[in-house]
Amino acid sequence: MPESEKRVAAQQAVDILHEISTILNCRLDRQTLSICISMIERGVHPEALAHVIKELRQEAAHQVGQDAASR
């Protein structure tokens, strides 16, 4: 498969996965989703990746709450 066809196929896959992500309200933009796909393709365990994303979101929310409380 030529390189241009591979890029088109990859973009279509990201588009479809982004639609699914939106339907499931995962709050992942296309760039973040692409990074996650790349990590999974390189062997990162999907459930572990999901856990890390959840933890990072919780920490970010906590930090926002602390920033708001300190004002």
Kindly give the count of domains.
Answer: 1
Major beta sheet summary: none
Oligomer: single chain
**Helix percentage:** over 70%
Pfam families: MOZART1
Family: Belongs to the MOZART1 family.
Protein name: Mitotic-spindle organizing protein 1
Function: Required for gamma-tubulin complex recruitment to the microtubule organizing center (MTOC).
Detailed description of the structure:
This protein is mainly α. It has one domain (2-70). 80% of the residues lie in helices and 0% in strands. It contains three helices and no strands. It has helices at residues 3-23, 30-41, 46-69. α1 (3-23) packs across α2 (30-41). The protein is elongated and about 55 Å long. It starts with a helix and ends with a helix. Belongs to the MOZART1 family. This is Mitotic-spindle organizing protein 1. Part of the gamma-tubulin complex.
In brief:
The protein has 71 residues and is mainly alpha-helical. 80% of the residues lie in helices and 0% in strands. Part of the gamma-tubulin complex.
Spell out the blueprint of helices and strands:
Layout: H1 3-23, H2 30-41, H3 46-69
Helix pairs in contact: 1-2
